[in-house]
Structure formats: C-alpha cells, structure tokens
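Dear support,

We are seeing what looks like truncated structure output for some complexes. This example has two components. We would appreciate it if you could run it in full and send us the complete token output so we can diff it against ours.
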Amino acid sequence: MNTAAAPTLDDHDHGHHAGPSPGLMRWLVTTNHKDIGTLYLLFSLTMFFIGGAFALVIRAELFQPGLQIVNPHFFNQMTTLHALVMVFGAVMPAFVGLANWLLPMMIGAPDMALPRMNNWSFWIMPFAFTLLLSTLFTSGGGPAGGWTLYPPLVLQTGDAFPFVILAVHMLGVSSIMGAINVIATILNLRAPGMTLMKMPLFVWTWLITAFLLIAVMPVLAGAVTMLLTDKYFGTSFFNAGGGGDPVLFQHVFWFFGHPEVYIMILPAFGVISQIIPTFARKPLFGYASMVYATSSIAFLSFIVWAHHMFTVGMPLAGQLFFMYATMLIAVPTGVKVFNWVSTMWRGAMTFETPMLFAIAFVILFTIGGFSGLMLAIAPADFQYQDTYFVVAHFHYVLVPGSVFSLMAAAYYWLPKWTGHMYNEQMGKIHFWLSVVGVNILFFPQHFLGLAGMPRRIPDYALQFTEFNMISTVGAFLFGFSQLLFLYNVIQTIRGGVKATDQVWEGAHGLEWTLPSPPPYHTFTTAPVVK
Amino acid sequence: MTTSRIAQAGGIAAGGALLAWSAVAHADFALNMTPGATSVSREIYSLHMLIFWICVVIGVAVFGVMFWSIYHHRKSRGVAPAHFHESTLIEIVWTVVPMLILIAMAVPATKVLIRMADARDAELTIKVTGYQWRWHYQYLNEDVGFFSTLSTSPAQIHNDASKGEHYLLEVDQRMVVPVGKKIRVLTTASDVIHSWWVPALAIKKDAIPGFINESWTLIDKPGVYRGQCAELCGKDHGFMPIVVEAMPEAEFRQWVAKMKASNLNTLTASGGKTL
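Here is the complete output from our reference environment:
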C-alpha cells in the first residue's frame, strides 16, 4: 500500500516517563502497547503448550482401542479444557497480542487509545485461567461436559461448575475491553492521511473482529449466567421439567459461537494479507474486495448459527434457511482465496518461513473450507454431525488456519519486535515438521468421521484403530515440533543477526519505517500518510 | 533447503494428499461414508460424493494455479514482479460462478431434506429414550418395550481379554424392525441430551429430555446395522451403542410375540405396562 511516510521518531528525553518501570513491576503496571502485546503473546504461547499437553493426553489414550491411560471422566475433562484453553487462552489472546503490538505502529498512533484498560484486559486473563485450571483439582474434577457447556449435562459438573462460569465471565470481560480498545484506537488515532480504505488489511480485519467480540461476548455471558441460576437458584431456563428448553441454550451459545469462530479467523486473514504481498513483492490483489468480503463474512456469521444444530430437530424451513445462509459464506471466503492466489500470480516470490506458513495457510485453510461446505449441506450433515469429520474440519481451519497464521505472524514481525533475525534454517525445519505433522494428525480424522467414529469418545470400535494410530503419531510429531518454535523465539529475543528497519525487501507499511526494535514510544508525533 | 526443493516438496505433499483422498474414496476400506441400507441414506451418500468431487475439482484448479505460480513466479528465476492489483471483471466472475455452483448443490440437497422431513404414513412407531448410559426402545401399539445395554465385557475394555469382532458395537437386546415398512422413530431422553445415530439408516437425531423428535426410515434388506450415541452425555458416552436388526415381516411378528411373553419386557423405564 501507499503508506510512504517519514518516520517521526521522538528522540527527546522524556525524563522518567520515557522508559519502562524497572524490574518485574514494569510488566505488572505497564500501559505500553508493546509491553502488553508481549505479555499477551507470551501468555498465549504458554497456554498453547498447556492446551497442547491436554491434546496429547487425548491422542495418547486414542492410540489404540481399550482404556489404557486415563478413565473416561478424565478424558472428558481433557477434551473440554483443551478446547477452552486453546480458544480462549491461546488463539484469541495471541491475536490480541498482535493487535497490541501492531495496530498503533500500522496506523501511526503513539499507543492504544485506552492504555490503562489495556493493562486490565490482559491481567484479568492469568487469574481467569488459574481459576479454570485449578478446577482439575476440585472434587468431581474439572468441567467434563464439552467446551460448548450444553445443559443438562454441564449441570452435572461438580464443585468446578461455578469456577468455570466465573472464569468464562472474566475472559468475556477481558475480551470486551480489548475489543473496545481496538475500535477506539482504530477510529480515533489514525495518522493524518490514513483513511479507512488505506489501512493495512490486518487493521481492517481486527476492526471488524472487535465489533464481533462486542456483539457476542455478552451473549455468552448471558447464557452461562442462566446456567448458573438454573443450577443454584432454581430457575428453569434450560430445564424442560420446569417449562424451559435445553435447546434454547444451544441457540444462544451458537449465536455467540459462530461469530466466535470468525473472531479466531478474520485476524488470520489480515495477517496472511500482509505477508503474501511482501514476499510476492506485489501489492495485494483486490484490497477493496478483501474489505467487503471480510465484512460480508462478519455479517453472515450472525445468521448461520443453527448449522451447528441440524440434528436437534428444527422445522424444515429453519433447516433450509440455515443451510442456504451457511453455503453463502463460501462466496466471500472464495473471493479471499482467489485474491491471495492472484497476489502471488506474476509476483517475484521468495519463500522465507513466514511465506511458507502463509502458503500452507491458504491451502490447508481452503481444505477446511471445503469440508465446511460439505458440512453445510444439511442432509449430509446428519451423517457428519458430531463425528471426527467435524473434528477434522474445525481443526483444519483452526490449526493450519489460525495457528499457522500466528506462526507466520511471529516469524514475520519478530525481527521488528526484537531487532534480531530469527534462525531461518530452524524456522524452515519447524515449518516442514509442522505441516507434515498437522496433516498426519488431522487428515485421517476425515476418514474416521466418514467411517462412523463419533467425537468425544475415549474408546472406539476396532475398525477405527489404524487411522487413530496414525493420527496420534502425527499429534506427537506436530506437538514436539513446536518446541523448535519456542527455542527459536527465545534465541531471537536473546540476540542474533541485527535486523534492518525494513527487515523484508518487499515489506511496506508504517511499522517498517520504524527502527528494529522500535523505541519504547513510537509515533509520539503522528506521521503523515500520503 | 533451496526454494525450488521447497516448492516441489510442497506441491508433492499437497497433490499427494488430494490424490490419496480421491483414490481411497472408492476403496473397500472404512474410509468413506457407506451408501447405507435405505433410499434416503443412498441419496445422502450421492449428495456427499457430489459435493466432494466438486470440492476436488475446485481444489485442483485453485491449487494448480497456485503451484504453477509458485514454480514460475519466483525471484530466483529472475522475474520482475507485475504491478496489477485489481480487475473488476474477474472479481465479478469469481463471485458469480461460485454462486451458481452453490445453487447447483442446493437443489438436490433441498429435495433430500424435504423427503427426510416427511414422516407421514408410518406403519410402525418406535419411541427411543436415551438414558445415562443405555437406550430404551418402546414399540407403540405393540406393547413391547425393553432396555438395550452395551454387552462388551469390562475385561475387554480394560484390555484384560481380547476384543471381539463387534467390540463396543454390541448390545444385549437389539432393536428389531421389519424390512420394507416405513418406521417412525421418536427420540427423547430422560436425563441429558443424547443422539441416536445409525449411519446405515442415515438417522441422527438428538434425544432431548422433555421433547420428542421425529425421524423415519424404510430399510430394504435384512441385516444388522450398528451405531452409537453421537452427543456427549457423560463418562460412558462412548459405551452406549445402538444395534438395529432388520428382518422379514413374518420373523418380526414372531419376535414381537416372543418379547411380549418375555420378562425383559419393560414398556416404560419404571417397568410399567402402559404409557
């Protein structure tokens, strides 16, 4: 994009306001967007490994038929907590971390618009997760009814129940505050000349994501509060015996849940739309249509929720409506994929680690999109629903989708953040191990689902053995490969080859006009964007 | 690793994955959905395969263009990047064409869905009730009802005995039905939500406490069709299978008579003889 601008760094001495507080207090009291971004990213990396460990327990148990390692109740706790940790602890905070680091630097703002609230929205999270994970040690164990928290099953949770609800509330508060901050920053702090249609796509996708967050997190809060009163205060929102309806919860949950899915993928679209033009050395194809496509996906996300519930027994008209609306999502999503491929077309590509992850994202996310289209077909969905086909589908869009975009983003901006180049050779090895591992892990799960294996079971019939074994091997390969990423990140933070300001030959945008690493305060005087 | 080797390896990996999927789709393995035992299940299977092949064709086209570009438009080949970044015509084309493909998919899907929703004129109605963790079957108008529980031994599950052929997919009392008759299946539950799923019959319907869901099937040929609970329902969710045995009408009548005389006959969960 045409964001040619002179960096206006402020080299004046600001006295005690200029730098960070000394010691650990820096991280506790910080209101600096770069510090908070770092906190978010490191927190989400930690959660990624915790959630990953839960996943490996699941895959280890499923390596062969029979019960070997854990009992079914603990198995259910693992599936539930794996999902909650990965969704709310790993993927969402990682994107918020990217937003914190990058939005001000991309739009030429000195910081986020509401820095104190920014501190809060981060520091709520470690407490929420301490609360959530501590339930593993309560009597009756952690939540075991699935991350979707469907009643009446979830009401059978033991002492963990109120803690889980409170943790979800805290995470919701954190997300809403983060989203308000993103919107306030983007709408108020853009540098002169940075019109909406000149914003980098990552900024656009986050703006739209933030509106989705504000719209749906309160819906989740309402739903879980109704669960709480059903359990402890004698209400019957979801209890048929008292005049309520268990399916009502599912409608409300998925009214949150489907936009939530896009909350985890729209910023990924933004990341990929930054990276592919850089390494293709060619401007993004169809910038305006990317913005419109993202907005359309966001709108459609509000009217497709019941495709998660085709088997609950909706009237025919309802099933038809949700089937058609869901199929429509393929159109704007297709536009995005075509735009990325057209951006690569007749470029001059190089394949550094961020580009490798971005290309893998486009291919593997599209495969997840294909299975999503298949799932949209309601009659066929009756066969796919609640099987491993669904598990394969959403892991394809979430792991080689969202998570690969996060890996791509980390490699892409790490030299900017730290001032050091990461180890490219190790990055490429990490990429190849990840891309091979993730496919061995999730591709066979399509076959398992089609052959009839339900999800969320700790033990299975003998005909599913081979593909479960293959999947487990892939899981361990993928999981342990991520230690290479951890090592590479730590080494890059500690030192390495000095990165240039532009870092990548084809990089454009305000953040690349700043030094690497950027000083603690940047754009204290707004740059002018032409 | 050089970029060309990376591109090649990437191409081989993705192409291989696609080929593997399409090749095995017709293989005689437990890799794909089966056509099943009813006309509806066969229609769903055709729908599934139709959408699958449409996706394969689109995938081959899009990824083909992408890999061609990755191979040819590399800096290491000394190419200079082009500068184009929009084209209204092509953007309209790739919005409209997918719309048309979607409509082509929606038409057959709608037909099947409408057919599945029509449970009128059933000749036999069976009420299926989910419990933690077993099923109860009640044959309305036949005065037959019984529980159906997993019959795999705990020793097999805990690896103390070798696992049988139908490990986890076998029950003490099968749901017996006649072939060639339209059967209405009503699903409900007594405690938490379950889901009654038999892949060969293409029925998956949630069993929801306090509500009754309706579906139907018409089985062509005698046989034993196995399924499982498909909605997480607690610790033994993986241990409440479904076995449906379809047999000719005459044999079914004999079975009904035998069941009526049997002490297994518990019309309702409480053991009562009436609804």
